[in-house]
Write a structure and sequence with these properties.
With 79 residues, the protein is an all-alpha fold. The chain is built from 4 helices and no strands. Helix 2 (31-38) packs across helix 3 (42-49) and helix 2 packs across helix 4. The N and C termini lie far apart (34 Å).
């Protein structure tokens, strides 16, 4: 049985997704481009960016590698 996410966890996923979207858009990549280059499904990119789901660390690593950023940059929340 999947554990229901707390409000803090939901907010974290939304903020993480916004950060990934900011970086992707700053490089003029579509979700499809990023998914293809990172070898993950573009639906995963969209769902992560919208904060609808988390993903594993390997997928985050692949996204960071394509975006040419350190994985830590995904966690630098400047709001």
């Amino acid at each position: 049985m999947a554990k229901k996410l707390s409000q803090d966890e939901k907010e974290f996923l939304k903020t993480l997704g916004k950060r990934i979207r900011q970086i992707r858009k700053s490089q003029n990549l579509t979700q499809q481009d990023l998914g293809f280059q990172a070898q993950v499904h573009d639906n995963l990119v969209g769902r992560v960016e919208r904060g609808e789901m988390g993903t594993n660390i390997l997928n985050l690593y692949k996204l960071a590698k394509v975006l040419n950023v350190d994985l830590n940059e995904f966690l630098e929340f400047n709001e």
